[in-house]
Specification:
The chain is mostly beta strands. The protein folds into three domains: 63 residues, no CATH class; 193 residues, Oxidoreductase, molybdopterin-binding domain (Sulfite Oxidase, Chain A, domain 2, Alpha-Beta Complex), CATH 3.90.420.10; 110 residues, Immunoglobulin-like, CATH 2.60.40. The protein contains seven helices and 26 strands. Strands 6-5-15-9-10 form a five-stranded mixed sheet. The longest helix is centred in the first third of the chain and has 9 residues. The relative contact order is 0.16. Bound molecules: the ligand Nc1nc2c(c(=O)[nH]1)N[C@H]1C(S)=C(S)[C@@H](COP(=O)(O)O)O[C@H]1N2 and molybdenum atom. The site of the ligand Nc1nc2c(c(=O)[nH]1)N[C@H]1C(S)=C(S)[C@@H](COP(=O)(O)O)O[C@H]1N2 has 20 residues, from strand 4.
Length: 399
């Protein structure tokens, strides 16, 4: 094995091609654990086209990697992730109002929300555990491959304008969020999250009532969900029912026990001080990352040349450059960046390779943000398997 391939976490070519045969047609990443490769199937949860089903209780479906040939992920292909199994249906929201508890309590209807100034924000919604299944050694949890993410244009009022309707007290430190889904068993903690006041008031935090020009799909949070640009999707609470401005840190399982990373492991611009402990912090800002969506692992490509295409994203500085390797990370070429859809969006890239030598090849991609952050060469091990941003590798055959 080349030293560089080792650094990139690439196993032997033989191991990869054997793994690539299982789960054929699904285009699952060759590095996913065998168990996941055996159980994953293409299926459609309500209102969706075919996604990769990892679980039905709770609903956990990821997007197929081909979708990331485009910067905007269509609603029907957008991934679905829940922690709980008691989910609302269309009828649950007849006469729906969103309760806001601030200095006073107000209840806002959909038309109250759409009467406020509306913001369009194109932003990546990515589960903290995206690519957990590619961790070596494997860690417990949903074995996500590459598709626990998507990018959409979200529309709705800014959270700060919604909070202003109820009034924000001087000593407020967090905004607490609750959604209409619940646990089927009383022993499972309800999904309750909070964000620090500064992020709650930021331009990139909105109460989205539309996604890519349509109402939110039921499984992506109808009728309203929080959108927190630059932050992992765990704060993007779906089916919002209640928002509370608080002077205390939220003491919920999903804040204090889950979704945490070793203190200081990942860079943050805006600390979540009220939820930090000495040893561990809540996971908040995403790391710079990229994915190759064309060709797919195991594809045959032409030696006269082929196109490498995909997307890159970060936590809000925007993507400055993308490099593609045709030799598993030994040498790199600068890819072309497509239209800029804003600092929180996917940035599409393409590289036309020109003539390539016949035989096996391993493609790799590495993005660099405008803040000059680049992807990890060695996986940052953490107990929950978050923030995997080692370069995505795609083994192909040049014929
Ligand atoms: N109400 C509610 N909101 C939620 C969750 C949930 O379980 N319930 N999961 C969160 C997590 S961890 C993720 S990754 C995203 C997934 O968003 P999606 O299902 O729209 O893709 O929703 C977030 N919001
Ligand atoms: Mo998540």
């Amino acid at each position: 094995m080349q030293r560089r391939e080792m650094l990139l976490g690439l196993g032997s070519a033989a191991a990869i091609s054997t793994a690539a045969r299982a789960g054929e047609g699904l285009n699952l990443d060759p590095m996913l654990p065998e168990g996941t490769r055996e159980e994953a199937v293409l299926a459609s949860p309500p209102g969706k086209s075919r996604l990769i089903r990892l679980a039905d209780r709770p609903l956990n479906y990821e997007t197929q990697v081909q979708a990331f040939r485009e910067a905007i992920t269509p609603n029907e292909q957008f991934f679905v992730r829940y922690h709980l199994t008691d989910l609302p249906n269309e009828n649950s929201f007849n006469g729906w109002k969103l309760e806001i508890a601030g200095e006073k309590t107000v209840r806002l209807s959909m038309s109250d929300l759409t009467d406020l100034p509306q913001t369009d924000l194109t932003a990546v919604c990515q589960c903290s555990g995206n690519r957990r299944g590619l961790f070596q050694p494997h860690v417990a949890g949903v074995q996500w491959g590459l598709g626990a993410m998507g990018c959409a244009t979200w529309r709705g009022p800014r959270l700060r304008d919604v909070l202003a309707k109820a009034g924000v007290a001087q000593d407020a430190i967090e905004v607490w969020l609750d959604g209409a889904d619940g646990p089927a068993l009383p022993t499972t903690p309800d999904f309750r999250k909070s964000v620090p006041m500064k992020k709650a008031m930021a331009d990139e935090t909105i109460v989205a009532v539309a996604m890519n020009g349509a109402p939110l799909p039921l499984t992506n949070g109808f009728p309203a969900r929080l959108v927190v640009g630059g932050w992992t999707a765990t704060y993007w609470v779906k089916h919002l029912s209640r928002i509370e401005v608080s002077s205390k840190p939220l003491d919920s399982f999903w804040m204090q026990k889950a979704y945490r990373v070793p203190a200081g492991m990942f860079p943050v611009n805006l600390p979540f001080a009220s939820q930090n402990k000495d040893t561990d912090w809540p996971i908040t800002e995403m790391v710079v990352n990229s994915v190759i969506a064309e060709p797919l692992a195991g594809d045959q490509v032409a030696r006269s040349g082929f196109t490498v295409r995909g997307v890159a994203w970060d936590r809000g500085s925007g993507i400055g450059r993308v490099d593609v390797s045709l030799d598993g990370g030994k040498t790199w070429q600068n890819a072309l960046l497509d239209q800029n859809l804003g600092p929180y969006a996917f940035r599409r890239f393409t590289l036309n390779t020109g003539p390539v030598a016949r035989g096996k090849a391993v493609l790799a991609v590495r993005a660099t943000s405008n803040a000059k952050e680049t992807q990890a060469t060695v996986l940052k091990q953490n107990p929950a398997g978050y923030q995997n941003n080692v370069p995505h590798l795609v083994p192909v055959t040049v014929a």
